[in-house]
Amino acid sequence: xxxxxxxxxxxxxxxxxxxxxxxxxxxxxxxxxxxxxxxxxxxxxxxxxxxxxxxxxxxxxxxxxxxxxxxxxxxxxxxxxxxxxxxxxxxxxxxxxxxxxxx
Length: 103
Known about the structure:
With about 100 residues, this protein is mainly beta. It is about 10% helix and about 50% strand. A 6-stranded antiparallel β-barrel has the order 2-3-4-7-6-5. A hairpin with a 4-residue loop joins strand 5 and strand 6.
């Protein structure tokens, strides 16, 4: 029986980010991608720069949008509509790889 590497998604709270022109925060992350709650929908199949605002540093990486859609509303916590955006990392520099592993 072979060992297969699985991308385990870890829930994350309190990590802000920018993806393209949208701001948002991480919902969960794995070694290969993330689910982001963003202020704008993003076009699937396009790559966007992502900037994670971590306590120690701002980390840049690149991700391809897999899907993007309106998030389920949560008792109208915000006046603006939120979107859930799933991204697969395409460029993960060494500093970003270490930062993602620590999350």
